[in-house]
Amino acid sequence: MNQKVRRLLISIVMIALLAVCTRPVFAQGQIRLDPHSSYYPLPIMLSSPATFNVSTESPEHTAYNPVILLVMTNASYQGLTGNVLVEWDGGSKSFAKEDFTSVVDNSEKIPPGTTPGAGYTVASLKEHIGVNGTQDDALYYAYGPFLSNPINATSQTFNVTLPSTNPRMLVYVLGSSSENPGVLDMFVPPTQPGFVVPDLATILLASASFSAFALYALKRRKT
Fold first, then answer.
1. What are phi and psi of 78, to 5 degrees?
2. Distance between CA atoms of 156 and 35, rounded to whole angstroms?
3. Percentage of the chain with pLDDT > 70?
4. Strand (E) positions, the chain?
5. 40/97 Cα distance (integer angstroms)
């Protein structure tokens, strides 16, 4: 193996390692959502139930009245075989199929009750969940209070079970910076997509795409 090819392979390995190890930068005071165990560099959980850790990015901030937001594709919604279950230490919340609301307008922001700087546009959610993002694509979302305590810098764990024949669902967490019930002004920054539960096909596709890129790069370097 000549030096040029060797350097290229080393560069590819380093890029892959950085993708695995690098975490997104969060603004202080916002909510951080992480998988409970090691994961592929894409925000994808590989099993249901999926386990998450949630905390605030800064110890000086607390998210009161925490809310979980679940967003799924139309195919995942139509394939539901039971209730979506969210469980944490000391409690649980069940979302039936009729608890989910359809939304198609790309400019709409969900969930209701967020401040202008919080919440998520439907267009962004469509991009993160992998639908083609046209105005006619429907997403289904449900949200509600969860956890037994406010969210602070000490990580709390919760599980999400998605019973669907075609599972594909985003998981987000929001909260309020005030103890008094009010608008939701703390959230997981959109720079990190909500974790998709679960979708092995996307991981396989991403792996194939990376391999194809590596082979293409090697071929071009050789020629």
1. -65, -25
2. 11
3. 69
4. 31-35, 50-56, 64-73, 84-88, 91-95, 101-103, 109-110, 120-121, 139-145, 156-161, 169-176, 186-187, 195-197
5. 29
Share of the chain above pLDDT 90, in %: 45
Q: Is the pLDDT of residue 133 over 70?
A: no
How far apart CA 111 and CA 68 sit, in angstroms, is 10
Distance CA(212)–CA(204), nearest Å, equals 12
Please check whether residue 2 is in contact with residue 215, taking contact to mean a CB–CB distance below 8 angstroms. no
First to last CA, the chain: 15
Q: Please give the C-alpha separations between residue 212 and each of 20, 140, 209, 219, 223, in angstroms, as whole numbers.
A: 19, 34, 5, 10, 17
Considering the entire predicted model, what is its pTM?
0.75
Token pair in block for residue 102: 């359809």
Tell me the pLDDT tens digit for each residue of 21-59: 334 433 445 899 988 765 555 577 777 888 999 999 888
Q: In Å, how far are 25, 36, 55, 188 from 29, measured between CA atoms?
A: 12, 21, 10, 10
Q: Which two tokens stand for residue 106?
A: 């790309």
CA 12, 16, 17, 18 torsion: positive or negative? positive
| Strand ranges for 1-97 from DSSP E | 31-35, 50-56, 64-73, 84-88, 91-95
Average of per-residue pLDDT values in the chain: 77
**Cα–Cα dist 79/74, whole Å:** 8
